[in-house]
Amino acid sequence: MPKNEKAWTIFEALRESHEKQRAFSEKLIKTSGDSEERRELFELLKNELFAHAVAEDRFLYIPLMMTDAGLNITRHALSEHHEMDELLEQLTQTEFSNSGWLAIAKKLSHVVHHHLEEEEHHFFQQAGKILPEKQKKELAQKYHAEYIKYLNKEKDSLV
């Protein structure tokens, strides 16, 4: 969290995790075979996606879904979260040395990048018009606390 975290909005808090997701997924698809690097990067990405999705669902999507204007914009984003969950499950169930593992990882990386791009360039602008400024700051604090809480939790509930 930045030094001036009181001025932080939910969108700035989410972007911090987005950068980690981009970096982990880009590095992951450059790995090969059943290597320690692949295992570590997959775990880092899986943890990051899990903590981010739980906190984002609770402290951005649900508050937005309580408004008529926010209902439609959240449905698409939630479907993309579900798609990422399914790909993570496939990767978890596939041997790291399997030739198809990298293909699934590349698809996941593509979905992650697409989702983040869409969120940052369309969804955040729409959500920003719906949420009052005070709520954006309150949601940032709640999101960050939930994100930290789930960052190192057992991931079996996700996949």
What can you see in these coordinates?
Helix content is 79%, strand content 0%. It has five helices and no strands. The chain is an all-alpha fold and 159 residues long. The longest helix has 32 residues, at 99-130. The protein has one domain (10-152): Up-down Bundle (Four Helix Bundle (Hemerythrin (Met), subunit A)). InterPro entries: Hemerythrin-like.
The CATH topology annotation reads as Four Helix Bundle (Hemerythrin (Met), subunit A)
Biggest sheet architecture: none
Give the number of DSSP strands.
0
Just name the CATH architecture.
Up-down Bundle
Task: Supply the helix-strand structural class.
Answer: mainly alpha
Quaternary status of these chains? single chain
Work out the helicity level.
over 70%
Per DSSP, what share of the residues sits in E-state strands of 2 or more residues? Answer: under 5%
Question: Can you give the mean pLDDT?
Answer: 92
Number of domains: 1
The ordered H/E elements are HHHHH
| CATH class membership | Mainly Alpha
At the fourth level of CATH, the homologous superfamily is nmb1532 protein domain like
Shape by Cα distribution: elongated
Rounded to the nearest angstrom, the distance between the terminal CA atoms is 28 Å
